[in-house]
């Protein structure tokens, strides 16, 4: 029964009620029962900065809205004097809807708070609003992706790679650029600040440390040209992108006049709350801490969960949530430690994993759903994709179950390659996945396209497919050769057969080293041509079908043989994973084996691609399923969650121990002592761990005769050796921090599940999975390999 406002007030005015009385009224009006942790936060007096360290599923948005409503009810502030900042449009909309719903429900008790609304916004929207106050940017439009200018930007790449496309090079360039901007490492948005005014080779050394990939110096030279061109195109067309909003706003704040103007706009806010605080980056903090008034900063409220800090690749920096008390002196911290989403039987499995992290805020993790949930573990002796997996059979059964809404099921993966094969396999069974990433559709995958386009070129006599993949047959040099053949014959070939005739004449005149490659292509082409003739001449359907299946096998064999050297090179240089390449090849070969007409295969593949690429088409299908990366899944929840494809691609068992020996944020002097201890006691184990982690700097140390690891103190007194060892220390620290972020990713994945979590363990599984409290193996005579609890 609701407690009405008149019953609570008696002769009092609403503002005369105590905070506890208002909390009681809200519990009644909203039909909620607040925990002791929630009540402690709701009693916040807004006199000191506050960090709400809220675990996954703890209802942090609800707490924020209730805090705002209590402040309004008590007369501490007007609704429009409250600012709520978050990172995504979805979160912003959720805040607004939650506020409106609570106000509506509370009005039934007689508590009328409908006379205004806080400003719920995102960092991007707020910065854009402020930047447009500057006449220079008043008419600027938002550019959401550099791909609008992809042709012009591609033209700036003067040193194309032998192994990745220009589009892929651009993606890596803009990843690097975004990371440096968000970390506050560059003011001009191009080069690192520490290298400005120095020769380009100095800047390249610095950028190489920030890049997640290994690149040549020529890549970084092209990077500078590409980003300069990008800046020019934005200026010419009146665009600013999301990173510009931060850089330009921060730059304009250096002008006291503009800073004062922005601060005057922001001075209306008496209460400011930053949601998802673990995701804030350096620039966002620099800007917001200058924009808000000292009075508002003195009781700034931030809400987040350090255990869900998973966006370091974007430049997010968890140091702000981890060091909030040092950041704002006198700050207080309250925990929300009860997860109301994830069943206890699931949550208890992931708690040991996240508690292995050294760098985290201390909090208990409890479930509000006692004795609920199901953790289902599958084990397999086979690595990679397997269509006879028991876990996948369970998935298909649930998708086809009329009692289960498809929207309640999600498959979560770590890498795009993992979802590709499974999504394609499901599509073969008329179950279509909302992949949320065009690059994760198998038909868009580079390995798949190389093989199938070469098969098409040989079967359909299409030169375009062959030309597009020529660099995968003989690298850049062979691609240049095909271009020269075109130029020599002054003909834009449409048929592969025409190219082969032109190449024969060109090779006879020039005696090029690529005659042998052209001859190989010709042998395969003629072989396929003979198959076509034999099929046409077959006198019965059985013979024709048998020949057709042999043809398909020969097409596949020709495409893979022509590209063997390319794939070997890519795998050797770690541009591609050998396991992933082999998985895709094996899957494709098995798919082809189901057909006795190659044209039917090509048609079906194109049809699948159309549906998987079009959300509207997916919506028309009877069955569909959410396919998300662990990063994309953050903030979402599902009744049934499948963690799939969590492999040891980046984390190997031997390297994991580095996190135990050398936790992130370990001071250099302590690292030195620990290094000496581990080196003396477990050198071979240490060396193996460093190799597994791909930390190559240790070789410079061990190969340096001047470096004495036993007498480390004396060695580090030398300038060169000190610099060498300090660089090694930073590399180990970064890897250790990476291990902890990978644990946080797994934690995020598990805590998306409400009722059921399914997980498969295989020989190639990520070793961090064994940090989970996995169900014990059943006795050997148990017939099934499924384990649940």
3D structure, described in words:
The longest helix has 32 residues, at 719-750. The chain contains 35 helices and 17 strands. It starts with a helix and ends with a strand. The strands form 4 sheets. The protein has a 7-stranded mixed beta sheet with strand order 13-14-12-15-16-11-17, with helices on both faces. The protein has a 6-stranded parallel beta sheet with strand order 3-2-6-7-1-8. It is globular. The mean pLDDT is 90. With 789 residues, the chain is α/β, with parallel strands linked by helices. Helix 22 crosses helix 26 (564-572) and helix 23 runs antiparallel to helix 24 (515-537). Helices cover 54% and strands 10% of the residues. It has 4 domains: 16-127 and 256-336, Rossmann fold (3-Layer(aba) Sandwich); 141-237; 353-433 and 627-778, Rossmann fold (3-Layer(aba) Sandwich); 443-616.
Helix-strand blueprint:
Layout: H1 5-9, H2 19-30, H3 36-42, E1 50-54, H4 60-73, E2 82-86, H5 89-107, E3 119-122, H6 123-131, E4 141-143, H7 150-154, H8 166-182, H9 200-210, H10 217-237, E5 239-241, H11 242-252, H12 256-266, E6 271-274, H13 282-291, H14 294-297, E7 301-304, H15 319-322, H16 324-327, E8 332-336, E9 338-339, H17 344-354, E10 366-367, E11 374-379, H18 390-400, E12 409-413, H19 416-428, E13 431-434, H20 446-460, H21 463-468, H22 470-489, H23 496-510, H24 515-537, H25 541-562, H26 564-572, H27 578-592, H28 598-613, H29 615-620, E14 623-629, H30 630-633, E15 638-644, H31 653-661, H32 668-692, H33 697-702, H34 712-715, H35 719-750, E16 753-761, E17 786-788
Parallel strand pairs: 1-7, 1-8, 2-3, 2-6, 4-5, 6-7, 9-10, 11-16, 12-14, 12-15, 13-14, 15-16
Antiparallel strand pairs: 11-17
Pfam family, one: UvrD-helicase
Protein name: DNA 3'-5' helicase
EC number: 5.6.2.4
């Amino acid at each position: 029964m609701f407690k009405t406002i008149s019953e609570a007030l008696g002769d009092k005015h609403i503002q005369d009620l105590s905070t506890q009385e208002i909390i009681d009224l809200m519990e009644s009006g909203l039909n909620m029962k607040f925990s002791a942790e929630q009540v402690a936060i709701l009693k916040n007096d807004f006199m000191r900065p506050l960090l709400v360290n809220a675990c996954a599923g703890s209802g942090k948005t609800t707490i924020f809205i209730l805090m705002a409503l209590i402040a309004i009810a008590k007369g501490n502030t007007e609704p429009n004097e409250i600012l709520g900042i978050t990172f995504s449009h979805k979160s912003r909309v959720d805040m607004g809807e939650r506020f409106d719903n609570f106000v509506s429900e509370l009005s039934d008790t007689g508590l009328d708070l409908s006379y205004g609304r806080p400003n719920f916004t995102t960092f991007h929207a707020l910065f854009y609003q402020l930047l447009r106050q500057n006449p220079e940017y008043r008419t600027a439009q938002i550019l959401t992706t550099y791909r609008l200018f992809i042709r012009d930007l591609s033209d700036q790449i003067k040193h194309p790679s032998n192994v990745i496309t220009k589009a892929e090079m651009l993606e890596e360039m803009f990843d690097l650029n975004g990371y440096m901007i968000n970390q506050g490492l560059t003011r001009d948005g191009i080069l690192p600040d520490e290298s400005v005014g120095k020769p380009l080779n100095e800047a390249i050394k610095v950028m190489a440390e920030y890049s997640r990939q290994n690149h040549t110096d020529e890549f970084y030279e092209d990077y500078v040209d590409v980003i300069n061109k990008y800046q020019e195109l934005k200026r010419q067309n009146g665009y600013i992108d999301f990173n510009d909003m931060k850089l330009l706003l921060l730059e304009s704040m250096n002008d006291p006049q503009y800073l004062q103007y922005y601060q005057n706009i922001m001075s209306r806010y008496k209460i400011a709350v930053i949601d998802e605080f673990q995701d804030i980056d350096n620039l966002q903090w620099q800007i917001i801490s200058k924009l808000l008034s000292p009075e508002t900063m003195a009781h700034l409220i931030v809400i987040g969960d350090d255990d869900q800090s998973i966006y370091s690749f974007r430049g997010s920096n968890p140091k702000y949530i981890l060091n909030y008390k040092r950041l704002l002196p006198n700050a207080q911290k309250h925990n929300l430690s009860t997860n109301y989403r994830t069943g206890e039987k699931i949550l208890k499995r992931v708690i040991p994993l996240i508690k292995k992290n050294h760098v985290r805020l201390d909090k208990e993790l409890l479930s509000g759903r006692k004795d609920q949930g199901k953790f289902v573990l599958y084990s397999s002796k086979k690595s990679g994709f397997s269509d006879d997996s028991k876990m996948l059979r369970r998935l298909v059964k649930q998708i086809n179950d009329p009692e289960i809404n498809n929207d309640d099921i999600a498959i979560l993966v770590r890498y795009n390659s993992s979802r590709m094969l499974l999504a394609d396999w499901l599509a073969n069974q008329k179950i279509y996945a909302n992949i949320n990433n065009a690059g994760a559709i198998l038909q868009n995958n580079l390995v798949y396209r190389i093989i199938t386009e070469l098969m098409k070129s040989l079967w359909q006599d299409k030169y375009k497919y062959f030309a597009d993949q020529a660099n995968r047959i003989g690298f850049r040099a062979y691609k240049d050769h095909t271009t020269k053949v075109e130029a020599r014959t002054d003909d834009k070939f449409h048929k592969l057969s025409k190219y082969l005739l032109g190449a024969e004449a060109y090779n006879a005149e020039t005696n090029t080293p690529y005659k042998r490659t052209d001859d190989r292509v010709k042998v395969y082409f003629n072989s396929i041509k003979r198959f076509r003739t034999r099929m046409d001449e077959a006198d019965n359907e059985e013979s024709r079908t048998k020949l057709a299946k042999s043809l398909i096998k020969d097409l596949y064999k020709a495409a893979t043989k022509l590209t063997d050297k390319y794939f070997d090179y890519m795998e050797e240089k770690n541009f591609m994973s050998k396991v992933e390449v082999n998985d895709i090849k094996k899957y494709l070969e098995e798919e082809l084996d189901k057909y006795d007409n190659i044209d039917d295969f090509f048609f079906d593949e194109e049809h699948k691609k159309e549906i998987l690429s079009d959300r509207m088409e997916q919506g028309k299908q009877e069955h569909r399923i959410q396919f998300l990366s662990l990063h994309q899944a953050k903030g979402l929840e599902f009744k049934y969650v499948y963690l799939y494809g969590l492999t040891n691609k980046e984390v190997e068992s031997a390297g994991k121990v580095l996190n135990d020996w050398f936790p992130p944020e370990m001071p250099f002097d302590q690292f030195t002592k620990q290094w000496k201890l581990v080196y003396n006691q477990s050198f071979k184990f240490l060396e193996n761990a460093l190799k597994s982690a791909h930390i190559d700097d240790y070789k410079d140390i061990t190969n340096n005769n001047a470096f004495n690891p036993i007498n480390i103190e004396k060695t580090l007194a030398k300038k060169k050796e000190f610099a060498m060892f300090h660089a090694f220390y930073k590399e180990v620290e970064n890897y250790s921090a990476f291990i902890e972020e990978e644990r946080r990713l797994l934690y995020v994945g598990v805590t998306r599940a409400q009722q059921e979590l399914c997980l498969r363990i295989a020989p190639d599984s990520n070793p961090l999975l064994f940090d989970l409290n996995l169900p014990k193996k059943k006795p050997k005579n148990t017939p099934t390999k499924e384990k649940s609890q």
